[in-house]
Amino acid sequence: QQPRRGMAGIAFKTPQRDIRFVLNEVLDAPGHYAALGSADCNEDFVNSVVEEVAKMSEQVLSPLNEVGDTEGCEILKDGSIRTPTGFKEAYDQYNEGGWQGMTVPEKYGGQGLPLSLGLIKAEVMGTANWSWWMYPGLSIGAINTLILHGSEEMNNVFLTKLGEGTWSGCMDLTEPHCGTDLGQVRTKAVDAGDGTYKLTGTKIFISCGDHEMAENIVHIVLARLPDAPAGTRGISLFLVPKYWVNKDGSLDTSRKNVVAGRLENKMGIHGSTTCEMNFDDSRGYLIGEPNTGLHQMFTFMNTARLGTALQGMGAAELAYQGALPYARERASMRALSGKKAPDEAADPIISHGDVRRMLLTQKAVAEGGRCMMYHAALLADGMLEADKEKAATIDDDLGFLTPILKGFLTELGTEAANLGMQVWGGHGFIRENGMEQVMRDARIAQLYEGTTGIQALDLIGRKILMGKGKALRKYTGEIFGFAYKTAVSPEHRILLPHAASLAWYTAKWLYLTARIAATASKDRESVGVSSVDYLMYSGYVSMGYNWLRMMAVANKALKTERGDRDFYLAKLQTGEFYFRKMLPRANGHSAPMLADSKATMQMTVERFSAR
Fold first, then answer.
1. Rounded Cα–Cα distance for residues 434 and 66 (Å)
2. Of 329, 449, 495, 502, which one is least surrounded by beta carbons within 10 A?
3. What dihedral do alpha carbons 343, 349, 350, 353 form, nearest 10°?
4. Would you state the torsion angle of the CA atoms of residues 229, 235, 239, 242, taken in this order, to the nearest 10 degrees?
């Protein structure tokens, strides 16, 4: 068969069997939900959620993916913004289905379901059409920020509407002169004396900052009060609506409170708006206490970073779905081990070792990444714990995993998207086949919400060195425990080499951390020079842990002959590929990691131009 397509490009098919496997068999999500007091979220309920989100993703969102890429968005003469054909209708259908309110507390009109179910929805819809998903996806970040930091009065107005999907949300951080370094934020906020503030400044690269799909847009904005301390300690967080909300709940649509100045012309994700937003005495409300904005904004940013990690995983999944049918159909040359299709002029390219390497890399990244993300999602369910001490512990654990997930999965997701083009050869470079769109859309994931380098510095600097390795020791202890349990189990004898390998790489992870910490005490630049290698090493070990967990479940299932034999064998064989062909990549990161900073830092700035 030729690859299934929408109008053009890849027609997404939800990997429901794999989702059920990770949730129900590997991570025991039903048991997890029961422990949370959400016993209604049993296996049947979770499966039904996956089935319903699959219907909308495959029937509505996937066919619009190429439409969004081709049409893009347009800013009209009156300053309004047009999104691609069908996007608003899909958004209305999404809201009619109650999807946006899944995880919103019931007192604000939502369904009060666990946060992790929202992430499963995000994976499926985002993989089908990432550009479209960004609109409701960013609203979820605004929702989570208000749940944790908004006042009751504020939430009764804004959170209810966000949960309905009637209004959407976005975050406004970046300014023309500063991106990651938010201590340089210049947008000003002045107390208006009536419980509101007036904001003045310009924000750029604001995803979904303006559009016509929702009645109102809630901007979560970083700004600085007049008497604020310098740097990040002087940043406050504000809620600024596109249209001002009157006391009776109606909107003042006579003027825009926040105005889009321009749309960016981007490499990919053409269906989502990326705006310059202008604030000119724009009225808003302070969220929380003055000068605590960065801490509060991290709620939104961590939601967005996990979402971006999901984008990397989704790119691997979509690229695999596009590459596999082509590899089975396209015939070229003969397999080295002999003819596989003797009645044909040539063998299918899936017969060739290098094509299989590319396909298995995509498969390993997509499925390993899914297990990593779902593990983090179940962990995040505890963020809203009434027990603040327990919630803080979960926040620390999730904070440690977040830069690994965001940095590692976006790097490998882009690699997998590139491999999808490579499987198609020259045809992958042709737009109508859809593979190059996956690559273009995926590339931004390594950049926004903090580049890979920023994630790496966050991991090794804040989470490891400043945290004195506490989170790392806890996580590696968990890995050692599972590797040992697997290694000594008679039923998992075939997994012994992989368990031993994982334990070795994990021990080396601790050793490398100690070496970097020791070097950093006398060579501070070494931290920055080695940080990305450290993050990638951490990612390969973390994915290896999740692959061993999946292999153990698959191996046990084969012994009990519970059915789905091909599925479980494929899981074991993909896992074996990961351990033998991908985990050893970590060694390529360990040697450069231990080198001092001299080779990188010794050249003067002037000599970079001496060529």
1. 8
2. 329
3. 120
4. 100
Give me the pLDDT at residue 389, please.
85
* Dist CA 173 CA 138 (whole Å): 13
Angle, helices 293-329/130-149, rounded to nearest 10 degrees: 150
Query: Average pLDDT for residues 87-107, to the nearest whole number?
Result: 96
How far apart CA 581 and CA 90 sit, in angstroms, is 41
Q: Please, which residues bridge with residue 188 across strands?
A: 200, 224
| Residue 296 scores a pLDDT above 50 | yes
CA distances from 234 to 237, 280, 394 (A): 10, 21, 27
DSSP letter assigned to residue 396 = H
Is 173 strand, coil or helix?
coil
> 491-500, pLDDT tens digit by residue?
999 999 999 9
Share of the chain above pLDDT 90, in %: 89
Calpha distance 516→146 (Å, rounded) = 39
User: Which regions of 103-258 does DSSP assign to beta strands (E)?
Assistant: 167-172, 188-191, 197-207, 216-223, 236-241, 244-245, 251-252
Contact present, 503 and 483 (Cβ < 8 Å): yes
Strand partners, 283: 198
Side-chain half-sphere CA neighbours of 117 within 13 A = 27
C-alpha to C-alpha distances, 509 to 139, 504, 533, 538, 591, nearest whole angstrom: 37, 9, 11, 7, 12
The length of the chain is 611
Tell me the backbone φ, ψ of residue 181, rounded to 5 degrees. -80, 80
Alpha carbon 489 to its chain centroid, in Å, reads: 35
SS3 readout for 91-115 = HHHHHHCCCCCCCCCHHHCCCCCCH
Question: What distance in Å separates the CA atoms of residue 9 and residue 62, rounded to the nearest whole number?
Answer: 9
Question: Measured in whole angstroms, how far is the alpha carbon of residue 293 from the centre of its chain?
Answer: 23
Helix axes 388-424, 293-329, angle to 10 degrees: 30
182 or 153: which leads in pLDDT: 153
Question: In angstroms, rounded to a whole number, what is the distance separating the alpha carbons of residues 273 and 351?
Answer: 42
Retrieve residue 18's tokens. 């794999």
The confidence score (pLDDT) of residue 6 equals 39
The strand pair at 274-287 and 236-241 is best described as antiparallel
Distances (CA, A) of 29 to 15, 45, 124, 379, 549: 17, 11, 17, 11, 14
Which distant-in-sequence residues (6+ apart) come within 8 Å of 566 by Cβ? Answer: none
Which residues are annotated as catalytic?
A: 449
The whole-number pLDDT of residue 8 equals: 54
Q: How many C-beta atoms lie closer than 10 Å to residue 315's C-beta?
A: 33
CB within 8 Å of 244: residues ≥ 6 apart: 251, 252, 257, 283
Between helix 585-594 and helix 496-520 the angle, nearest 10°, is: 20
User: What are the b/e assignments for 354-387, b being 16+ CB within 10 Å?
Assistant: ebeebbbbbbbbbbbbbbbbbbbbbbbbbbbeee
> Whose CA is closest to 134, among 83, 173, 174, 179?
83
Res. 118: pLDDT tops 60: yes
∠ CA 217-132-311 to the nearest 5 degrees? 110
